[in-house]
Fold this sequence. Notes:
Elements: E1 2-6, H1 20-32, E2 36-40, E3 43-44, H2 55-61, E4 65-68, E5 71-74, E6 77-78, H3 85-104, E7 113-117, H4 119-132, E8 137-141, H5 144-147, H6 153-165, E9 168-171, H7 174-183, E10 190-192, H8 207-213, E11 225-229, H9 238-245, E12 252-256, H10 262-271, E13 278-282, H11 289-295, E14 298-301, H12 310-317, E15 322-324, H13 330-333, E16 340-342, H14 348-360, H15 365-373, H16 378-400, E17 402-405, E18 416-423, E19 426-427, E20 437-438, H17 443-454, E21 460-463, H18 465-469, H19 471-482, E22 487-492, H20 505-508, H21 515-533, E23 539-542, H22 552-557, E24 562-563, E25 588-592, E26 595-599, E27 604-608, E28 613-614, E29 635-638, H23 646-658, E30 663-669, H24 684-704, E31 708-710, H25 712-723
Parallel strand pairs: 1-2, 1-7, 2-5, 3-6, 7-8, 8-9, 9-10, 11-12, 11-14, 12-13, 14-15, 15-16, 18-21, 18-30, 18-31, 21-22, 22-23, 23-24, 24-26
Antiparallel strand pairs: 4-5, 17-25, 19-20, 25-26, 27-28, 27-29
Helix pairs in contact: 1-16, 3-4, 4-6, 8-11, 9-14, 12-15, 23-24
Amino acid sequence: MKFLVLTTLFPNAAMPSHGVFVENRLQAFLDDYDAEIRVIAPVPWFPFKNDALGQYAKFARVPLREERNGVHVYHPRYFLPPKIGMNYAPTALARCFTKAIKEVTADGWDFDFVDAHYFYPDGVAAVEIAQSLDKPVIVTARGTDINLIPDYPRPRKKILRAARKADAIVTVAAALKDQMISLGVDRPKIHVLRNGVDLDKFHPVDREAAREKLGLTNHPKGAPVIASVGHLIERKGHDLVMSAIKNIPGATLLIAGDGAERKALAAKAVTENLVDRVRFLGAVDHSELRNVYSAADMLVLASSREGWPNVLLEAMACGAPCVATPVWGSSEVIRAPEAGRLSTARTPEAIEAAIRDLWSNLPPRSDTREYAEQHSWQTTIDGMAHLFENFVEKSEANRATTTQAFSLDAEKQKPRLIVTIDTEEQFDWSSFDFRHHLVNDTADVDKFQQRCAVENIKPLYFLTYPLLADEAVARYYGGLLREDAADAGLHLHQWMTPPGDFSGEFYSFQTNLPRYAYREKLRELAFKFSDALGQRAIAHRAGRYGIAKADYDLLAEAGIKYDFSPSAGFDFSDRGGPDFSGFSNKPFILSRDDWRIAVTPVCGARAIPRTGAFFDQEKSEPGFSARPAKTPFLISMRLSPEGARLSDMKALTRRLHKSGTPVMSFTFHSTSLTAGATDYTESKDDVESFLNRSFEFLNWFRNDFGGEIISLNQLARLYDDAVTKKPT
């Protein structure tokens, strides 16, 4: 397993605590799993190293590359202009990542997937880069990237776009998952993997020795020593803790951290007569924090927002219970008396009350340590491994699958067209729930089939599991096959196909199924097909708009030789599906040493609304290397009678032929042949008009346009002959 980490949150020699939680998770993973990792952790460009210039001077002192715990870490610079930095940051990072990846892989090292941390701007840039490299990408949301930054409209839009295109999302707290769902991210894509605590690094040390080291040997008995740990910024609420201890006799506050609020906090200590009771420890090395936690009776965290506050578990691992404000992940950490208390509000009075309550009922420090031991990294890294292994399998399958264009000269041949029907049950398109569906009588399809017989057209029906499981329906299509009046293939409605419940819109897109589930469902559907119809299926169309290149080996395992899934000209990414907006309409081959599948896209293109003017889809080579087409004011249309006028279908056909598409696919849903089953045909008159429009187009294609309507067998011979020629 090899993966590349992209994040601006990662420790370095100049800032050893910066983003340490990311390094901790990676290190915990490496302790248990075999992996090669390289890290690109950019820092903002700044020309001067003088300490008087503040935080940016530290960035200037960060080395360009270093090795940390055996991991190669690169720190390229990116330019972040003042005032417009928030909106420009993803673009700047994407350029930085692109250049740095070339350096990181210059020695021939390659990686299976991208592991990005912090959604904005890091995750937004990482998703863009991973897609350009055809690599899976997982993004971890950590706190303010989800509970603060989406308050700004432009970053929110970019975060949602990246979330839809990411292969998986991890949040470090359930509260962050809930927030992402409320923003509009698909629930099944989000996995909660909480940060663990390094129980070897954070453990109790001798309290008296720790207190002596911190100069607390004369601390009054009967008064608490309280720690407040974190950057000295407003969000961490150190000032609230100072106000909270003011009325607690003899209480001493240890503030560990550095930051912009240091002077303000020191001034507050003076004005509120707390100079002798507040100790500013400055930035404390992460490995030395156990002395602070061991010296303290409790830790207080008064943050206004947190993802998963690591300091709470670190303190507990050292035996110190905690008080925290009831925000975000804090309430997921403190869930038992031995862990500490949550204040009722983020006010000095509420924090003081929680401190007093905990101080009067301090749990044994051994009990607090045992509570922390329930939150080791093991569960998290095992969850990571499960996600990562799926990515590795996909990445390896992707690399092993080659793409080849067909040698078909469309200009010298007749236009060709194959008639395909997504033959399916009637169901609720808003829920994709297997419990609610209806198998329509075949009489409506038979009207279409009889007209095909008159016109000497042999359609290709893609059949779903419920139809194959219905004895009468299976008998009807089996008869068509035996009479050689039609062909049939697989149509995987995954929410309707056993085993496993994968309901909902997210899993309705075949690209989103886990590989193990996809493999099992394809096998079950293929078995049901052969059992019901007496022959093996060799053709397939995804039940919902395409599959990933990496998953074609699963089709090959199921016996498929011809796929008709990618929907050229359409972008489903806003609903969690694939983006085929820039996809070519031309057929192509995907293959490995032991299998070959010919792919015929669902023909479509983008058009100017109400004009019949279609844009060329052939800006990219046939296959999955196509880049998305960014054309916001255009509509997408298939070569289909559903929602299209006859003039539109003719105009699209001319566009396809002009663009050199050697084989076109004409398609619609079988439910459009039943009155009221779809919005396209709400009445019997609509169905009759639908049929007439379909055959008027097919007759025009054959008689006026000079085209040839072919069957699956004819298409197979055409492709087999083309394979022996030199590819274009």
